[in-house]
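Data availability (excerpt). The following record was deposited with the supplementary files.
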Amino acid sequence: MSSGCISLPGDPPGGRRAAGVWGLGVAVYFVAIIFRTSLGVAGIDAAERFHVGASALSTFSILQLLVYAGMQIPVGLMVDRLGTKKVLALGVVLFTAGQFGFGLSHSYAAALACRALLGCGDAMTFISVLRLGARWFPARRGPLIAQVAALFGMAGNLISTLVLARLLHGAGWTRTFTGSAAAGVVVLVLLLLFLKDHPEGHEPAPAPPPGKGFVGQQIARAWREPGTRLGLWTHFTTQFPAMVFLLLWGMPFLVEAEGVDRGTAGMLLTLVVLVSMAVGLVYGQIIARHHAARMPLALGTVAATAVLWAATLAWPGTHAPMWLLTVLCAVLGACGPASMIGFDFARPANPPERQGTASGIVNMGGFTASITTLLAVGVLLDATGGNYRAAFASVFVLQALGLTQMLRLRGRAQRREEERIVASRVETVHVPQPDLRA
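Predicted structure:
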């Protein structure tokens, strides 16, 4: 496989202006992640506020992610047809309204509706940011741009862990959630004033009006590419262990099952985020230079995660030692960056006019796995009387399923990508040159 990305004719130049516009899109994603993960530090408080048990508590995150996952393909189609700015603006309005309403909710049903609204808006952010990066930066920068976007998303998770957790216990539930919604208003104003879909001179070709069956054809063509399917299963297998841990069950697991005080548990959650930010930069640089490293990095992350979870859950005695919990959290930090590799399989497999749709398919993977695991953990906790070790054993079932699919598809995707690279080089060689004598 090629050791790096090829530059295509007509690639956008990048530069400072590109970084500024793309950075504005990343700021929207940053705020969306703060709102998405805010429940992760408030799980125990939410159970008390709404008088619910483990299964009902997990429903908050399950519904939010279910809406998120279900919106991925529609959002991908919207981005391909409407452009980034319109979709991002709609997303900000929805997730800000959801966060604000969640802070005011006193009933379980109202809170569920607000998390669903938040999930719908959140679903419109990351695919839009990926599309924005593809429109403003050369193709060879794609892996690094995607990893840096994810890094800023993890920074949003860090804000939830460090800032919102303190505000929650200082200012209280309502002030914390409604006050944080102001960040959504700020990024919406900046987006409307300054964001552009693409640089001058790099406008995409006018899209033909969608004919009968356009949506189905767009999805089918993206799905037929082995790289798209490999991307989905890579995202599925790598993302969910850290997502489940950070989004809801990490704090209760560490406090209730492992006997860690809330302050130390918060530090361990912070470690997951910090490691993720560091690993994301490393993975992005490696993949940008050596595309052949994508599969070894993904498989290595899956293996390390499985080994550390097994060691933690099987540790003899009541609690695992602190050093093992620390290593577990450090390894979980690699899951987010590894999941981004899924987009690096799908990106070269699809033409520009199908990037949003393909990214939506890939992004469904990890969130589908996360929904399944969130539900399984909640149900098993209730069924076993709070046995976290039995509940978290569900992680291995999802990992085995995803790993099987990754190994099945990797050869097919590699051959198809090599064919596309050869075809692109042949096209580039035969591009007609202008007659300079004229």
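Summary of structural features: The chain has one domain: 16-198+221-424.
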